[in-house]
Amino acid sequence: MALVLSQDEAMLVDSTRGLLSREAPVTAFRALRDSGAELAYEPALLAKLAENGLVAPNVPEADGGLGLGAAAAGLVLQQAGHVLAAAPLLSAAISAALIARAGDEGHRADLLGPIVAGERVVAPALEEGVRHDPRRLETKAAKSGEGWSLTGAKTAVIDGFAADAYVVSAVADGVPALFLVEKGAGGLNVERFVAVDSRNYAKLTFAATPATRLGQGDASAAIAAALDLGRALLAAELLGAADEAFARTVSYLKERRQFDREIGTFQALQHRAARLYSRLDVARGVVLKALRAIDEGDADATWLASLAKGTMTRLARDVMMEAMQMHGGIGMTDDFDVGLFVKRAQSAGELLGDDHFHTERLAAGKWGL
Question: What is the pLDDT of residues 327-336, one digit of tens each?
Fold first, then answer.
């Protein structure tokens, strides 16, 4: 497997980077954050991304998508990381994967097309604890007439405060199952979950909330596959954010002068920058391999997704800390953009498992330690 971009992938990167640079620069995210608006994303940006086929490009062609796979979705998220684009791209890709795997033909026809077109924001509601734990599933589903009702709660729902509907995991007939819940459903309470990166997280509580079951039987495999996809996509976004923070830091080292010389000429700073450069170069291969393994149905895809997410959580944290330190006092201020990247890396690193979670997952599962 060649760990370099194909010509088509390189074209996708160039076009996505150009569009996001024009339509969603970091200044736009800062302005949106500072505006005090509850909805921390621009619907017009989502529409523009959808118009260019950049929303959930992993959706199969048969279901109204482009069928470009996880690698394409990851490359889009990587470019979104460069500009901190707050569009609900991650939630779209994960929710689409859940629906495509668990839903029947009618569900796929009704839901996937509108997600790809940017007409509906559907968020995955899978987490129930303070920290990521996919084994924890206490939300219950019960038959209610011809449908179902849910009782329980979900937390840290990605893009949940901006969503029109939710794909919710719950126990039904003694096994994990997936349900679609509309935002205005009775008994559903949506509370904004305020995190340091100013994104649209939410806490959901269900009190006999009407829901539509997606498919039948045990949805464990669909949930596990969607989580691995989400981990690989988050790794790609973290890679983009880390690349951008590193590039900005190197530029600063070349511009900032102390003792009548650029600080980038100081050997100690050169060594620190070189170490980060080398680690970022290796990480690019790790992330791309994980994304391609998912597309190819590789038996090791789940472990590669953990490797990518764990690697990028730790590396992004290290890059951000070095970026703040090398920028000196200005790097600690909110007026300087590097702080925005630090905050996004902190939140994204915790989502779907941090580096400690994935180290333990690999040790226990892949190597049986």
Answer: 887 888 888 8
Residue 1's contacts (CB-CB under 8 Å, 6 or more residues apart) are 289, 292
pTM tops 0.90: yes
Report yes or no: 111 and 103 within 8 Å, Cβ to Cβ.
yes
Amino acid making up residue 62? A
Predicted confidence (pLDDT) per residue in 300-326, tens digit = 999 999 999 999 999 999 999 999 988
* Geometric angle at alpha carbon 107, from 102 and 113, rounded to 5°: 110
CA distances from 19 to 16, 48, 77, 87, 168 (A): 5, 9, 13, 13, 32
CA 55 to chain centre: 13
Contacts of 81 (CB under 8 A, 6+ apart): 236, 237, 238, 239, 240, 241, 242, 243, 244, 344
Q: Which residues pair with 203 in a beta bridge?
A: 191
Taking alpha carbons only, the member of 139, 200, 198 closest to residue 167 is: 139
pLDDT for the residue numbered 183: 94
Domains (range + CATH), the chain: 7-121 (1.10.540.10), 123-218 (2.40.110.10), 221-366 (1.20.140.10)
Residues of the chain scoring pLDDT < 70: 1-2, 369
CB-CB neighbours of 310 under 10 Å: 24
Is there a contact between 199 and 40 (Cβ–Cβ < 8 Å)? yes
Amino acid letter, 369 = L
C-alpha to C-alpha distance for 299 and 68, rounded to whole angstroms = 20
DSSP codes joined into one string, 300-361: THHHHHHHHHHHHHHHHHHHHHHHHHHTGGGGGSTTSTHHHHHHHHHHHHHTT--HHHHHHH
Query: Residue 116 and residue 284: Cα distance in Å, rounded?
Result: 27
